[in-house]
Each structure stands twice: as structure tokens, then as C-alpha cells.
Design goal:
Layout lengths: L5 H12 L1 E9 L3 H15 L5 E9 L6 H11 L3 E6 L5 H11 L5 E4 L11 H9 L4 E8 L4 H17 L12 E4 H7 L9 H8 L3 E7 L12 H15 L2 H30 L6 H35 L6 E5 L5
Parallel strand pairs: 1-2, 1-4, 2-3, 5-7
Antiparallel strand pairs: 3-8, 4-6, 5-6
Helix pairs in contact: 2-3, 6-9, 10-11
Amino acid sequence: MSTPHPANIHKLDTDLKKQTIALVVPACNESENLRPFLDLVNQTTEELDAYYWEYIFIDDGSSDNTWEIIEDLAQTDPRVKGVSLSRNFGKEIALTAGLELAGDVDALIFIDADLQHPPHIIADLVAHWESGYQIVSTKRETIQYSMTRKIGARLFYFMLNRFSDLKDQSRGTDFRLLDREALKVLKTFEERTRFFRGLIDWMGFKKTFVTFSAPDRAKGESAFKLGSLTQMAVNSFTTFSLLPLRVTGWLGLTVVTLSLAILFYMIITQFLFEAIYTPLAYFVVFNTLLFGVVLAALGLIALYIGHIHTEVIRRPLYIVQDKIGFEDE
């Protein structure tokens, strides 16, 4: 075994004395963006040399050569670590995997690999952390979305903030820094259906925001399509709010009231004004309204039962297929 160069030993001892900040970077089919992303990150972290940096890339079941690029980066840069999940588990779970595999770090930053989270903002996140904030979140000032997505996002945030115990910032992102204490608490959460950003906001702690303008996606296509965005919205809403169940109760009460009013109207007009209603008409009015209430209630209850089922069966949140750069690999 060769003896390490004294200069390398000195550098290692110096790094061990520094606080460690890890970047968790979920990536799904981001092979074209990874190298430019790492170059921009290095430009920022080189100026923040008071800290030791780690970059943890999570390949969330990519169908391109994302994992091969991560392996190559890890072989050329000792700060790079990689995790390949056995399939696409979704961004929320990829972030969870990064959180759990980051180990004992002083701070952790979640950032996307598509360059719509500008790496130079990392310096602002660290500056706010140094001033005493335990969570430093970001929100977009501007971003190019379709009108449908903009309207859907505004409706989602309005409903979430108005009817749940969660106050999530409109245009908020997963681009966030958490300090050691916040990370300890976040790691104790055990729910399987996750809205990661919502969990962080729910925790509280001393928090501030950094605003940035999101550039257009550099290359590739977003993994968030209409279906996945809708699923995330439904999951986050049913996770943090009981409003759908309450609405079912209110809807049921409303339908009962209306059905009784219609029935009383039919009875009164039939006896006082000689209007003619067949028994079938009475049955159709009452049964249609009641049937609608039952269907609405069953649909909403099924969502909550589905969440309970997911929690109870306790499958692993994710499966690691391969790792690189970790000591226990």
C-alpha cells in the first residue's frame, strides 16, 4: 500500500475540522445537465471553502445514462457520491433517500439537477444559515409555466393554505437548506405518502426565504407531467388536511336539506294546488341526491383508506440498486 503524500494528509485533516454541507440532487433522465450543473456548483462552493462539501446524486430510475454520468463524476471528484434506485420512486422519495443516506452532516441542501435552481443561490442559503436560521427556503420570483399549470398551482396553494394546518408559500420550491437540528427531526417522520416540502414547512423552526428568478430548463424534459403533479397535489392535500372529509359531511347535510325541501314542496303543492307527482317522481328526486352523496363520500373515504393501507403495509420507501462513493458500499 502506498503512503499518502504529506500534503494530502494535511488537506484531509483540515477538511475533517470543517463543518460539512451536503447537497442532495435528485435526478431522473438528467444526463445532459449533470456536468454543467456540477461545474456551476463548484464555482460557488470554491468560494465557500470554510466548509467541506459533499454532493449526493440520487438517480431515480432514469432510462438514459444518468447513472453512468454519476459514476464518472464520482471517480473524478471525491466529493461526489451516487445512489441508483431500482426504479422510479418519485421525487419525494428520492429526496428522502438522499436525506437518509447523507449521514451526519452540519447542513443539507436539496437542489434539482435541471439548473432551474440556480447553484449560485447556495451562497445566499449558507449566509442566512450562518446568521442563525435553521431552515432557509426559496421561492421563485418568475418562471415560465403554461397557463394551465399556473392556474392549477395558484388553486392548489390557496386550498392548501386555507383549509389545512400547513402554510406553504406560493411559488415555493424544494431548493432548501436545513441545519443539523431540523434534519434530526425530519428523519423521524415515518409516513409513506410524502409531500416533502410540506413536511419541512410543518416542522417550524427558525426559517427565512430567498427569492430567485428561475431560468428556463437547460436541457431535457421535466419529469413532472400533469398526471404526476395532480397526484402530488391530491396526496399533499389529503395528508395535511381533513377538509375533504368535512366537505363530505357538509355536502351530505346540504343534500339532505335540499331533498327534504323538494319533498315538502312536492307534498304541499300536491295537496294545496292539486299538482300531480307520481310515486316514481318522489323516489327519483330522493334517490338521485342520496346516491350522489354516497358516491362522493365513498370516493373521498377511499383516498384516506388508501393512505392508511400504504402506511400499514410498511413496504420500503425505496430500494437502492447501486451506490458509489459511500464507505459502506
